[in-house]
Amino acid sequence: MDNYDFFVIKAKENGVNVIGLTRGENTRFHHSEKLDKGEVMIAQFTEHTSAIKVRGKALIQTRFGEVISGEEE
């Protein structure tokens, strides 16, 4: 198996959407999950998933650090 990066998303409110985007010439949505407050999703980038989009307030942890989505700076 190739060495793909894992990431963790913990919902800080109900209804957080996590959307996987494809690799290739045309970027497309290929997977979607809805998380409720306190739910955790552990996922990884793969040969098919090149990016994720998080809609809602969530803690996102990667090997590069943490960020909270849905907060204004």
Describe this entry's structure for a reader:
The protein is mainly beta. Helix content is 0%, strand content 58%. The protein has one domain (6-69): Sandwich (Immunoglobulin-like), CATH 2.60.40. The strands form two sheets. A four-stranded antiparallel sheet has the order 4-1-6-7, with no helix packed on it. The protein has a three-stranded antiparallel sheet with strand order 3-2-5, with no helix packed on it. Strand 6 (58-62) and strand 7 (65-69) form a beta hairpin.
Fold topology:
Elements: E1 6-11, E2 16-22, E3 29-35, E4 40-44, E5 49-55, E6 58-62, E7 65-69
Write out key terms for the chains shown.
73 residues, mainly beta, Immunoglobulin-like, 4-stranded antiparallel beta sheet, 3-stranded antiparallel beta sheet, 7 strands, 0% helix
Number of helices: 0
The count of DSSP E runs of length 2 or more, i.e. the number of strands, is 7
User: How would a crystallographer describe the biggest sheet?
Assistant: 4 strands, antiparallel
CATH architecture: Sandwich
CATH class: Mainly Beta
Helix content, binned percent: under 10%
Tell me the fraction of residues in β-strands, as a range.
over 45%
User: In which order are the strands of the major sheet placed?
Assistant: 4-1-6-7
Distance between the termini: 39 Å
Derived structural class: mainly beta
